Amino acid sequence: MQGDRSRTGGLTPGRPWANWSRAVSVRPQFTGSPRSVDEVVSAVAFARERGLPVKAIGAGHSFTAIAVAPGVQLELSALSGIIEADASTGRVRLGAGTHLHELPALLRPLGLALENMGDIDRQTIAGATSTGTHGTGATFGGLATQIVALTLVTADGSVLTVSEYENAELLPAARLGLGALGVIVDVTIQCVPAFLLQAVEKPEPFDAVVDTFEQRASAVDHFEFYWFPHTTTALTKTNTRLPSDASPKPLGRIRRWVDDSVMANGVFALTCGLGRMAPAAVPGINSVAARLTGDRSFTDWSPDVFVTERSVRFREMEYALPRAAVPEALRQIRALIRTRGWRISFPIEVRVAAADENWLSTAYGRESGYIAVHRYFREDHSEYFRAVEQIMRAHDGRPHWGKLHYRDAPELSALYPRFADFTAVRDRLDPERVFGNPYLGRVLGP
């Protein structure tokens, strides 16, 4: 099998795989690392002929089982880098396996950047857009809104281009398709001229930040905050966009190392471990963490401000709410933690995004605020997440597709006005569910 790549797409007997958070694992029957689109087509044909499902994986940063491939698992790192670029229009075509952290080196020579980013850049471009990855900013959409075209290998082996000019009716479905419509082999991103961000990070009173959340979020380019449970302090982050000819004032190498490597990861890992062994110590630990982090200002190129290093493993659930519902939901979560007597070491993260038109986007048709809750990966997250989810449900919350949640297709179909349109596209492109798995069966239906 190894010697016949043209027939099998280079598939080999499967190897054990686990996602980053170690919440999900599988041993596929076959694993492949296709080197070309033709090899992806061959791998899909091989799987279809044997009745095996196919899933492409990215970097494994989804917390859900969305990438679990019990049949054929395709790893697309060989399909990476710039395929073509037009600096004059800002459009860049990238291999699906390109990691977000590779983009600054690829785009900077062209004078370009992503319009917006999240705070983690380990994902692949196809994995990130397929699960609805987003950053923060009241006038900025998620990563999928930046896609103007993509290429899919569909269940029958067709290579399908979806763009403003070809199969345009599929674009709102395919940009954020959960891996349910085919294997994405490339995407074309609408980039913007490279820019700097002026970052101001500081601790502020939690109640004051929550009370003014909507005004704060709308008044600046990018606003977010973190709240360590059991404290009265919110750590706010305000980023203002500046042109490329502005003067950078980056953090010094030592300051960044101390803040991001030592404090945000090294010390935090120790405190999470301590909190797990001695839960009663968590409130005190969180109070110290809130005092020692998040008080700095600097100006740097956008990727160096948007992205932060995250090496402490955790589990996460994130919900998108109508923006106006965020303050009340946060107060209810704070009351829930107090009432249950839980000791939660990980901070709660709050962000915003503009409404968009992608059918399965958590921000479809409404300006959205996001609340993300986390637990250290060695702690049981289920009781906390399930209870918080009840609050999110009461506020018409939509769960992030790549983060833990407990919703199913009948519930989700009521939250998305174009849900039936998406499943109709799925029925058209993958009637036999070649790209299905148990997670997709749960959230999209059989």
UniProtKB/TrEMBL annotation:
InterPro entries, per the entry: ALO_C, FAD-bd_PCMH, FAD-bd_PCMH-like_sf, FAD-bd_PCMH_sub1, FAD-bd_PCMH_sub2, FAD_lactone_oxidase-like, Oxid_FAD_bind_N, Vanillyl_alc_oxidase_C-sub2
Gene Ontology CC: membrane
Any coiled-coil regions, as ranges: none
GO molecular function (one): L-gulono-1,4-lactone dehydrogenase activity
Keyword Oxidoreductase in record: yes
Domain FAD-binding PCMH-type: 23-194
This protein's UniProt keywords: Oxidoreductase
NCBIfam families in the record: bact_FAD_ox (TIGR01679)
PANTHER family assigned: D-ARABINONO-1,4-LACTONE OXIDASE, L-GULONOLACTONE OXIDASE
Protein name: FAD-linked oxidoreductase
Species of origin: Homoserinimonas aerilata
Lineage summary: Bacteria, Bacillati, Actinomycetota, Actinomycetes, Micrococcales
